[in-house]
Amino acid sequence: MRSSGTFTGIAALLLLMTGCTRPVANVLLLKAQLENNKGDYKAAIADYNKAVELDPKFVGAYNGRGDAKLNMGNYDGAIADYTKAIELNPQLAFAYNSRGNAKNDKGDFDGVR
């Protein structure tokens, strides 16, 4: 039986070969979320980066990458990604919350407001 990582890679390759970049970005997002949940933040960030390269307006990829960076203690990187997600979708309430958490963790208590 193949691992989910192998399946995800094959699915992404097939979609990419057909020229469908958004479905590939979606597959990469799902793969990155799994990696983030397992604590493999570097791998998650690499896949979020690929998703953003394929679709620079992919809000979910910026938000997820922010989560991975926050988990690694990269507060400035997380804040930048959450800010980009908010720029792309100002209605994304949880990105505001996550950005506030990152600023709080960084010690920027004035920026939390």
CATH topology: Serine Threonine Protein Phosphatase 5, Tetratricopeptide repeat
Helix content range of the residues, please?
Answer: over 70%
Number of structural domains: 1
CATH architecture identity: Alpha Horseshoe
How many DSSP helices?
7
Provide structural commentary.
With 113 residues, the chain is an all-alpha fold. The protein has a single domain, classed as Tetratricopeptide repeat domain (Serine Threonine Protein Phosphatase 5, Tetratricopeptide repeat, Alpha Horseshoe), CATH 1.25.40. The chain has helices at residues 4-17, 21-38, 41-54, 59-71, 75-88, 93-106, 109-112. The longest helix has 18 residues, at 21-38. It is globular, with a radius of gyration of 15 Å.
Write the layout of secondary structure elements.
Layout: H1 4-17, H2 21-38, H3 41-54, H4 59-71, H5 75-88, H6 93-106, H7 109-112
